[in-house]
Amino acid sequence: MTPDLSNPTQTTRTRHRRPVHHWRRDLVELAALFTAVAVADAVANTVGHGPDGPMLLVLSAVGLVATAFFHVWWSRRHGHAPPSGDTGARPAAPGGAERAGPSGSDAVAEAAGAAALWRMRTTVRDEPGALAALCAALAGHGVDILSLQTHPLAEGVVDEFLLRGPAGLTAAEVTRSVAAAGGRGTWIERADAHDLVDAPTRVLALATRTALDAAELPLALRQLLGRCTIRSLPAGATGRAGQDTPVEGALEETVMRLRSPEGGVITVERPYPPFTPTEFARARALVELDARLGPRVPDGQDVLTLPEGNTLTVRRADVSDLAAARAMHERCSPHTLRMRYHGPVGDADRYLDHLLSPRFGRTLAARTASGRIVGLGHLLWDGDETEVALLVEDAWQRRGVGGRLLGRLVAMAVEAGCGHVYAVTQASNTGMVAAMRALGLPLDYQIEEGTLVITARLGAAPAVAHDTAGVHGDGAVRD
Which position has the higher pLDDT, 32 or 113? Predict the structure, then answer.
């Protein structure tokens, strides 16, 4: 419900459930009381001193009873008629409890029912009455303001709204009314029930995720800033962009650059709307939190039992496992490394720094009882897409290690909210195709000059952490 901002007293009293009194009503009630006293005195004198006193008393009683019956009939007939205007009242929840607002299941039901949720940004003048005019324009369309955030600028203020309006209301109608009320550069899109979480709660939740796992930083930034593309460039590949980026970061309309703790640059970009200084400050605070906490990977491991009875442990890996990962490379054949990295075998080791960094994704390592790594699975953040990749050393292929790693990677992608994952391999690698098909997910295939890209859609992913026999890595699969 959009309050009447032109009457602050009424707005305040209505918000706290207190009735609004007027002095005219009190005066009328006082006059009615004195009139009733005077009429009662006249009737008493007539009854006590007149010859027909008892008859008048009986007739008065009959009249009072008839008036009472008429009042009861009239109240039942007209007492529940709808008010002429929106008083701010809302239907009571089941069981007689009063609903304080759209939250929980009620919010989801309203969002999926007749009402539509919108996220809107617009720039208004930083002067008294500007926001009131905007709210009045929205109220004219029956739009309810569920939340409001302000982003101060050097000139003006960017107001970000979460709106709920009639289902038939279009974005064009809203933007025209906002423009007429003084809004500039308006941006609007449909929202869903997840946007009902207030901004401080969402920021605290993202900070908690980042504190627990360094690999969560890109995902947290994406959820904080909406649909955007996030790329992490290591210190050796930043080029001029990295040299021009100050330590505190840089903001250029729809692009922000932030210094990562490792010395590289995190680039965040979206087509529209432009980033505000408030959003830049929030993103920089998340990056600074990540830098202060240092490298970290959540504890915990799974036990992988192979068909022949041997057991391996699967847990997260990071740059501290670099030496063990290079030792596994030395035990792999050139063919296995070539199939995995799609390039010269001598360049394989230099990819490990990137692959094991939690800044670029998550890595799972399969280890023997002695701690030797025999398989690596990577879930890599590639802009706004997610890549999966596998490598299993030759002696452990054809034993289900790759299938187990792939299932866990896809489960992690689902947990992270990814819409799809893709794997890049060679067209002749029928084993990788079989591994992706065994996940039981919708697949898309693209092939060009011998390179095959398989994309799995995760919209309705089942439990995928299962064994897939015959899967032995991204490149080295033996049938």
Answer: 32
Write down the residue that tokens 């200084």 correspond to: 277
pLDDT, average across residues 297-305: 80
387-388-394-399 Cα dihedral, nearest 10 degrees: -170
State residue 201's pLDDT score: 85
> In 3D, which of 424, 235, 405 has the Cα closest to residue 343?
424
pTM over 0.70: no
pLDDT of residue 381: 84
* Beta sheet of 184-190, edge-to-edge order: 144-152, 157-166, 115-124, 184-190
Do the domains 301-457 and 108-195 match in fold?
no
Q: What are 157's two structure tokens?
A: 């203020």
pLDDT tens, residue by residue, 47-58: 566 666 666 666
Rounded Cα gap, residues 127 and 136, in angstroms: 16
pLDDT at position 2 is 40
Q: Tell me the domain boundaries of the chain.
A: 108-195, 199-293, 301-457
**The architecture CATH gives domain 108-195:** 2-Layer Sandwich (3.30)
φ, ψ for residue 375 (rounded to 5)?
-160, 140
What CATH class is the domain 301-457? alpha beta
In 167-319, the DSSP E strands lie at 184-190, 229-233, 250-252, 255-259, 265-269, 301-305, 311-317
